[in-house]
Structure formats: C-alpha cells, structure tokens
Amino acid sequence: MKNGRFKITLNDREHQEVRVSKIPNIELLCQMIGLNLNSDELQYV
What we know:
single chain; alpha+beta; two-stranded antiparallel sheet; 2 strands; 18% helix; globular
C-alpha cells in the first residue's frame, strides 16, 4: 500500500490497484496477508 492505494502484482507481472477506502474490510485483508496495521501507509481518507 502506498499513498492510500492498495497495489498488487499478479503472476503475469500485471499490476492492479484500488483506493484503500473502496475495500470494505481493509483491516481484515491486511491481517490475512500479513501487513502491519499500524503502518503510516495504511492511513486513508
């Protein structure tokens, strides 16, 4: 995550991104993939 956007790279090296505020359970997603929930990068509006 960076600048309020969740970015992911797929197996074929294609990149996808979405605004964090559009993900309904971002906290749960972060826990599932092992991201630090206290990170400044997770701050979103």
